[in-house]
Amino acid sequence: MNKNHRQKSFNNIFLLLLHRFKKGVVKLLKYKIIIAGAKDVGKSSLIARFCDNVFKEDMKATIGVDFKRKNMTIKGAHNDISLELHIWDFAGEEKYRTLFPAYAHGASAAFILFDTTRKETLKDIDNWVEIIDKNANSNIVKQVVATKIDLKSDREVSKDDAAEYFKKYDWCTEITSTSSKTGENVEDSFVLVVKKIIKNNLQTCKSCDEIFNKKLKNCQYCGEKVEVRLSPL
Ligand SMILES: Nc1nc2c(ncn2[C@@H]2O[C@H](COP(=O)(O)OP(=O)(O)O)[C@@H](O)[C@H]2O)c(=O)[nH]1
Ligand SMILES: [Mg+2]
Fold it and tell me: For residues 188 and 50, what is the distance between their CA atoms, to the nearest angstrom?
């Protein structure tokens, strides 16, 4: 064995050990999530509650586009699955509408918000769904969120009204209801959506248990051919 060969074998053994050592340890996968909905429905407040666990009565209006990062770990069947979420906030104002397509581009999930205290905010949703369907990944997760449920006496849209309005969308099987003020159901809504992102985008290798992109036909870690796609959850 010459020096080069020895070095190569050493490198391979090192990589193998590194891979063994890393098994079961989380990998960071990055996904873009957008928050859509009319002005003042509570987009920025939902992000602030989820990312920083804060709520402001006098939340400043978003100008153009804003962006936050948040790491999240979901317990999978074999591994913990760690994700870095890139959460994009948007000003719901008409004057920024030309930016919508670029905003939706490359997103893996969209939260689509309406305000339970203002019936007219439902109408904006149809506009958003059209923009998202035209510009985002075809397997994007779309999640309708009913906001501000702490304002019980101001409520204009009941659960039944919302279910009736959204039944035209076959993807809309469940609507989540949140309060960014109390924090009710905020984290759970993100967990729900992130699990759907995982199901849509990732698979587990039956041979080495590693998690990798669903589009691949062979495991990117051990090379095993994919016969049946296994969900990481
Ligand atoms: N009571 C209550 N107020 C909320 C809630 N979410 C947002 N708000 C208020 O609604 C207003 C608009 O919220 P904001 O997040 O700026 O809406 P955006 O324009 O969609 O980003 C602000 O005054 C917030 O404090 C909520 O869950 N409960
Ligand atoms: Mg905002």
Answer: 10
- Which is the closest atom of ligand 1 to the Cα of 92? 19
Closest CA to 75 of 224, 195, 202: 195
Instruction: Determine if ligand 1 sits within 6 Å of the CB of residue 148.
Output: yes
User: With a threshold of 0.90, does the pTM exceed it?
Assistant: no
Domains of the chain plus CATH, in order, are: 29-201 (3.40.50.300)
pLDDT in tens, 48-105: 999 999 999 888 877 777 889 999 999 998 888 999 999 999 876 667 777 788 888 8
Instruction: Look up residue 86 and give its two tokens.
Output: 């890139």
The Å distance, Cα 20 to ligand 1 centre, comes to 47
What CA–CA distance (Å, rounded) separates 184 from 203?
31
Cα 53 to its chain centre, rounded Å, is 18
Alpha-carbon separation of residue 217 from 108, 138, 202 (angstroms): 21, 20, 12
Residue 186 near residue 51 (C-beta atoms within 8 A): no
